[in-house]
Amino acid sequence: MSRKGQSRPFRRSIPGLASLPRPVYGRVESLPNRALTYRHSHPWVQLSYAIAGVLEVHTDAGRFIAPPQRAVWVPAGLPHRVSSAPRTEMRSLYIDCSAVDWAPLGCRVLQVSPLLRELISAFSVLPVEYAEDGSDGRLVQVLLDQLRAAPEVDLMLPLPVDERLQDLCRRLQERPERQETLAQWSDRLGVSEKTLSRLFLRDTGLSFRAWRQRLRLLGALTPLERGERVTDVALACGYDSTSAFIAAFRQQFGCTPSEFFRP
């Protein structure tokens, strides 16, 4: 315990591997608190998948969010850090680049099908140095085939490069319920509303309103996954009513909150 009587923050360890023992290497982790790794990169691909809880991968380009049934694909060499909701059950795959030469560049969130979920689960109990020319090796090949076929899902919050927008976005991420308009932010930052609107589109590909809505809805995934009431989550995110929140959620994700977390 700290001197203030609070638990010390949990710092997730990163495997110190000089090389992978096999083309695919796996880790199973139970994270009791909010896990936060320091900024780092790997010479191999990383797939982070939570069977419970919500994972986030942070890069310079944005925040990539993976609730259950989704996973974050992090390409080799990309600086990133990982955070998670409390009590997250996590599976990590580290994959040699030569085994996934088909993979596009860039970080992305993938949909995890029931078959892919079971393959990851089965792989997690294999020995580290599994036999590549036997049934274990064939399971790994099927796993890689399913990863190649996994569809990408839009669970990413793009972050700007303009310093003025970075300050604005940081403040909104700290308090997503803030209600200031773009005109009010433009006055505060000393730029015209038109300029601020143009910068948002240039740096994030989204309007200010769309970016703030995505921030709020992505932030709602963790409390919703914990089972908090939709009404409480809606109000905490800055929505005036549950119906407005559900309508925005459906517009963003194509389903209701309860449907989103259905296995």
Give structural notes:
With 263 residues, the protein is of the alpha+beta class. It has two domains: 24-156, Regulatory protein AraC (Jelly Rolls); 159-260, Homeodomain-like (Arc Repressor Mutant, subunit A). The protein has nine helices and ten strands. It has helices at 114-123, 135-149, 163-174, 182-189, 193-204, 208-225, 230-236, 242-253, 257-260; strands spanning 24-31, 45-52, 55-58, 62-66, 70-74, 81-84, 88-95, 108-111, 152-153, 156-158. Strands 1-7-2-5-8-9 form a six-stranded antiparallel beta sheet, with helices on one face. The protein has a four-stranded antiparallel beta sheet with strand order 6-3-4-10, with helices on one face. Helix 1 runs antiparallel to helix 2 (135-149). The longest helix is centred in the last third of the chain and has 18 residues, at 208-225.
